[in-house]
Amino acid sequence: MNTAGTNPGDVQKEESMLLQKAMINANYDALSTAHEDGNKISSTFVPGNLNELLMCFDFVRNLPEINALQAGMRKKSGAYIMEAERSGHSEDVCTYVKTDLGMMSKGQVGPNGKPLPTPDVLLLSYTGCFTFMKWFELVRDEYGCETAMLHVPYQADGKITDNMRQFVVMQLKEHVIPTLERVSGIKFDIDRLREYLGESAKAEDNLVWVLQSAKNKPSPIDAYFGAIYYCGPIFSAFRGSKETTAYYKALRREVEDRIEKGLGPVTPEGLLDEERIRLVVEGPPNWTHFRDFWKMFYDEGVVVVASSYTKVGGVYDFGFRHDPEHPLETLADYCLGCYTNHSLPSRVDMLCNYMDEYEADGFLVNSIKSCNSFSAGQLLMLREIEERTGKPAGFIETDLVDPRYFSPANVKNRLESYFQMIEQKRLRPEDRSAA
Ligand code: SF4
């Protein structure tokens, strides 16, 4: 299903992927030498990350989930997880946590091969996953560093109220900002924050444009495997910087070019030349076998046109943008609006909307064994979405970074049967006339 011209083993990369790689490498180098360079380090999680605020205090930003993901892709997470289990962490604990803890006990060596220094502050903005709290408690015990906690109320009724927003703003003013000022020794400057938020909004516009380009037929992007790279800068240490704005402009140009030429997504083996099936996917991907996993889709001409995972670091496609005119309120709205902070009914609505707007042929859940935050309720969501859209749904189970829970033959088998089911359903006259 891919254009020829690549040698086995060659990996085709988009220009924007190379740009992003350079940004990530530079950030890891800055982290490795932060203390020698006189800089402070913050550690924070992807959902609800307050990157623009951290930039106001010149923190070099560390994200433990990204370190765990990188360890998974580099096939190092298995050993780290075993190390954490040897020191008493159960098999059911989130494998990002165990990767991070195992990495710490093995010298905290980052993906650049250099040790990552101890963070100066842990900023915990709590958006929907209880594990985040336990994770930072363990890290705090180990390092004894300062912690700033931001409680973000859960969107149980599927909406953000002014009370919820004001509660988050109050904590930012009274606790988070004073802590960051004290640790960094830098006074908070709201105009600096406004400037970064303005850059974020520009980048978010282009990210949304890129994600929504999947409404085209053929889709010029894969909105799960490919889009994970597209979300990288905005979801991590870079949102709010000028280089991120430039990255998203470059990415948009690449995608515009593919649309003009009627081309499909770029896969690691080249351009996909025939789109046979369009899917919406729920749940995070597997990182330890990322390429093999993706190949199971593109070999069959399957393109993901929308996914929930590309919303974990911020839901932008329903209109939210960081707003420099209301700097603290917008940070609150951003945290409150993260995907993991949405109730199950709102997640179902969002996914049904994707099925419809992106004209998907099916809905697939990749359930992550050790991620309770995503996995809870997924079977119910699957049934509801199947019923509401009339499109076939599929279910597979893998893990984020534990190689023991990715069984290639099993996953491939299930996916192939599911893809066959979609094609057969398309051929049935009653489904054709209903379409
Ligand atoms: S349980 Fe899931 S959402 Fe929570 S920290 Fe682990 S991977 Fe992230």
Describe the overall structure.
The longest helix is centred in the middle third of the chain and has 23 residues, at 162-184. With 435 residues, the chain is an alpha/beta fold. The chain is globular, with a radius of gyration of 21 Å. It has helices at 15-32, 51-55, 64-73, 77-86, 95-105, 131-143, 162-184, 190-212, 225-235, 242-260, 290-298, 327-336, 344-357, 372-375, 378-389, 408-427, 429-434, and strands spanning 41-44, 60-62, 121-126, 146-151, 266-267, 270-271, 277-282, 302-307, 362-368, 393-398. A four-stranded parallel sheet has the order 2-1-3-4, sandwiched between helices. Iron/sulfur cluster binds at residues 94, 96, 129, 131-132, 340, 371-374, 400.
Structural topology:
Layout (H helix, E strand, L loop, with lengths): L14 H18 L8 E4 L6 H5 L4 E3 L1 H10 L3 H10 L8 H11 L15 E6 L4 H13 L2 E6 L10 H23 L5 H23 L12 H11 L6 H19 L5 E2 L2 E2 L5 E6 L7 H9 L3 E6 L19 H10 L7 H14 L4 E7 L3 H4 L2 H12 L3 E6 L9 H20 L1 H6 L1
Parallel strand pairs: 1-2, 1-3, 3-4, 7-8, 7-9, 9-10
Antiparallel strand pairs: 5-6
The protein binds iron/sulfur cluster.
Quick recap of the structure?
This protein has 435 residues and is of the alpha/beta class. It has 17 helices and ten strands. The protein has a four-stranded parallel beta sheet with strand order 2-1-3-4, with helices on both faces. The chain has a four-stranded parallel beta sheet with strand order 8-7-9-10, sandwiched between helices. It has a two-stranded antiparallel ribbon with strand order 5-6.
Major sheet details: 4 strands, parallel
- Gap between N and C termini: 26 Å
User: Proportion of β residues?
Assistant: 5-15%
Mean pLDDT: 93
